[in-house]
Automatic annotation (TrEMBL):
Source domain of life: Bacteria
Pfam families: Thiolase_C, Thiolase_N
CDD domains registered for this protein in UniProt: thiolase (cd00751)
Occurrences of domain Thiolase N-terminal (ranges): 5-252
Domain Thiolase C-terminal: 259-381
Annotated protein name in UniProt: Acetyl-CoA C-acetyltransferase
Record key words, sorted: Acyltransferase, Transferase
Origin organism lineage: Bacteria, Bacillati, Actinomycetota, Actinomycetes, Pseudonocardiales
PROSITE patterns on file: THIOLASE_2 (PS00737)
Sequence similarity: Belongs to the thiolase-like superfamily. Thiolase family.
Length: 382
């Protein structure tokens, strides 16, 4: 059976909106990480068969195939193609899947996967404008859509609230998880846990999101994002900037280029789920990827579950029975931030490096996605 290996994984620090990365053009941010990956691995960049990047806000500075533009901006060979994919928040994880599938099929041997997002330039819509049908048009509309789902609000913010209600997740539960996320991330930074995976960019060498002054008292004083709701900014992922890149290789490429893999892709899954709840996909995706691999959840050493909202992770924990002490152990998107098109690769990068430090065998990554979808990936450390 063919194998798909992950040879190296690097990322930028995650910058706050308006922070240390906000003035950098997305092409240059992505290009810095791509160049660093080529340098770290020592590969001939002309030997790369393809570059696949996730990006959600493919407009303005991030339009016109930002993966290709980032590669060229780094001064890398024009002979290497690139493409940009959008599976909403899971775009970079899907890029990894596409790269692995190319290697597993035998059609390509060296593929770079990753993602980027400079949300300071292309921010996500606020709850106030969700449902607005003006301007460029509202995606959840049209005769067929209305016949199936009616005229109800479709948004991640409503989905997070619906999940909290269905799984009886209290605001206090979510605030405790959020505080834990910040404390874990701050401890990881202090311990140098991210040093090997981060490429400093323009003097920024550490993630800007974690807040040392976070407290349950401060969180309790915030207004909900929706009238009468439980979700506040404190239990939601941060609007962020960042980029990430991984090198995937076939067994032949590992031998030919003298590479030492970090891990192999053990199994991959992608599922659809209720688009109204929108964010429940990680639950069936986890079940699917474990079934494909023939692995039990108790066999997994490390979980990365994207903290789009605290309610998403808490519902996933309840349904899967996975232990919180093995989940998001270095903090999640509530603390570290969520640059949409890059986060799927950021989670994988952090998971791989932590498995390497701790000697764990299996790591499982999953994340919710707009439209009601989710990817899940199981890797085995080598």
């Amino acid at each position: 059976m063919p194998e798909a290996y992950i040879v190296e994984a690097l990322r930028s620090p995650v910058g706050r909106r308006g922070g240390g990365l906000s003035a950098l053009h997305p092409n240059d941010l992505g290009g810095r990480i791509l160049a660093a990956l080529v340098e770290r691995t020592g590969i001939d960049p002309a030997a790369v068969d393809d570059v696949i990047f996730g990006c959600v806000g493919q407009m303005g500075a991030q339009s016109a195939n930002v993966a290709r533009n980032a590669w060229l901006s780094a001064g890398l060979p024009e002979s290497v193609p690139a493409t940009t994919v959008d599976r909403q928040c899971g775009s970079a994880q899907q890029a990894i899947h596409f790269a692995a599938q190319a290697v597993l099929s035998g059609t390509q041997d060296l593929v770079i996967a990753g993602g980027l997002e400079v949300m300071s330039r292309v921010p996500i819509a606020s709850p106030a404008v969700v449902g607005q049908r003006e301007g460029m048009g509202f995606p959840y509309d049209g005769e067929g859509w209305r016949n199936r789902y009616g005229d109800q609000e479709i948004s991640q913010f409503r989905g997070a609230e619906l999940i909290a209600e269905k799984w009886s997740v209290s605001r206090e539960d979510m605030e405790e998880l959020a505080l834990d996320s910040h404390q874990r991330a701050l401890a990881a930074i202090d311990d140098g846990a991210f040093t090997a995976e981060i490429v400093p960019v323009d003097g920024l060498a550490a993630d800007e999101g974690p807040r040392p002054d976070s407290s349950l008292e401060k969180m309790a004083g915030l207004k909900p994002l929706r009238e009468g709701g439980r979700i506040t900014a404190a239990v939601s992922s941060q609007i962020s900037d960042g980029a990430c890149a991984l090198l995937l290789a076939s067994e032949q490429a590992v031998r030919t280029h003298g590479l030492t893999p970090l891990a192999r892709i053990q199994a991959m899954a992608v599922v659809g789920s209720d688009p109204v709840f929108m964010l429940t996909g990680p639950i069936p995706a986890t079940e699917a990827v474990l079934a494909k691999a023939g692995v039990e959840i108790d066999d997994v050493d490390l979980f990365e579950v994207n903290e789009a909202f605290a309610s998403v992770v808490l519902a996933w924990l309840k349904e899967t029975g996975a232990p919180w002490p093995k989940t998001n152990v270095l903090g999640g998107a509530i603390a570290l931030g969520h640059p949409l098109g890059a986060t799927g690769a950021r989670l994988m990068t952090t998971m791989l490096h932590h498995l390497g430090r701790t000697g764990g065998r299996y790591g499982l990554q999953t994340m919710c996605e707009g439209g009601g979808m989710a990817n899940a990936t199981l890797v085995e450390r080598l």
